[in-house]
Amino acid sequence: MSRRALIGAAFAASLLAAGAAQAADQVIRIGATPGPHAQILESLKPVLAKKGIDLRIQEFSDYVVPNQALDAGELDANSFQHQPYLDNQVKDRGYKLVSVAQTVNFPMGIYSKKHKSFDEVPNGGTVAIQNDPTNGGRTLLLLQDKGVIKLKEGVGFKPTVLDIVENPRKLKFIEIDAAQAPRTLDDVDAAAINTNYAEPAGLSPQKDAILLEQPKGPYVNVIAVRVADKDKPWVKELVDAYRSPEVKAFVEQKFKGAVLTSW
User: Fold this and answer.
1) Which CATH class is domain 26-107+218-261?
2) What pLDDT digit, counting tens, does each position of 224-240 carry?
3) How far apart are CA 252 and CA 89, in angstroms?
């Protein structure tokens, strides 16, 4: 064989090897809401890339579609919700989904453009809360913890406005989609906003919230996958990467206490 033919054969072999290596790479499709959840997942990419895993992040603007997409097989995992929300979705919609790891906690905050403290909210004032039972209930529990309202005994983690038994300031609660909460601030006295929606709207839980939840209870966020996939090797790789020292350092440096790691 001539020298030119040898070089050509070697070049072809190298292309085949590169193609095989590329084909061998694992792809994980993961869904998240914009803001901190998606930003944290971006920090996983180099950690997973070292293990030949390509993490592809798809952002969703609400809390409903990520579980629909995961259950339908359009995603491999998602990272945007806490355990009570996932449990409620599984119960109400029949999804075959399960959490495989805890991730981070976002303290719930109540914000206002009109008042510098919640004490300034007038009698009969309007307060926007989330219209899904887990996040709306979480807000009502926060208001009870701060002495603003009182709820029925034994309501658990998903109370509704119908469970309010004492509302001395006669506050009016307006239920809205969680993703729309920042947009209501011009129209209401105060609004409960999840941190993953507050941060992209330029709101800091530590600086801007007029009421802030103490990080406790079941509200640590989770990674969810389909039940059929929970024991697959790539799930462990994903969890290990998320809970790595590199990601912990990113969260602490980026969010400065507004997002708390669970590990």
Assistant:
1) alpha beta
2) 999 999 999 999 999 99
3) 30
